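RETRY 2/3 - previous attempt timed out on the joint model. Re-submitting the same 228-residue input unchanged.
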Amino acid sequence: DTGVSQNPRHKITKRGQNVTFRCDPISEHNRLYWYRQTLGQGPEFLTYFQNEAQLEKSRLLSDRFSAERPKGSFSTLEIQRTEQGDSAMYLCASSHWTGDAQETQYFGPGTRLLVL
Amino acid sequence: SQQGEEDPQALSIQEGENATMNCSYKTSINNLQWYRQNSGRGLVHLILIRSNEREKHSGRLRVTLDTSKKSSSLLITASRAADTASYFCATDLLSGTYKYIFGTGTRLKVLA
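RETRY 2/3 succeeded.
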């Protein structure tokens, strides 16, 4: 078990560019979550998948954001036409959900995005 | 707005002392979890307490949950410098959307 991994760990981009982040969950975890965290705040939920199905998206997730989990394993989060307000840490988490409403999420190290 | 709010926002103690931080939330929950985050890094799960539990222990950690007051506390006993981190509570809503809502965090500093 290598834990949740995220790539890249850091990304600096210019306003208006597109960026894509990748998350590899713990193998056989069926749920995968994306969060955004800004300095001094707790993580804010963005979206989550159960297997390949995207079950919920936050209102924070504007139409510039899209997430996929095509084969129910790794996931990508793309931000189009980045804005300076998108600068944040993007965290991925995975869990093994069995339906008993007791679910521990395991977090990756995050991708820190800076939009200039 | 955030579901949970931790109190205090910041706490500074000497090594060996106990640290207590509190979390209040707004709506009924299934579970409440506590996480630790070292500076600029990912979150580490510490403990989960179900809504029908009142107290739980894990090593030097003790968590209580009072659903009537919609609050939880995390006690770290005999603190160490390595406990320096931000601590977050996260709640999943009884309405069953299965997403966790995080609080604003308590920044704990343990002085050696």
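The two ends of chain B are 36 Å apart (CA to CA). Closing ticket.
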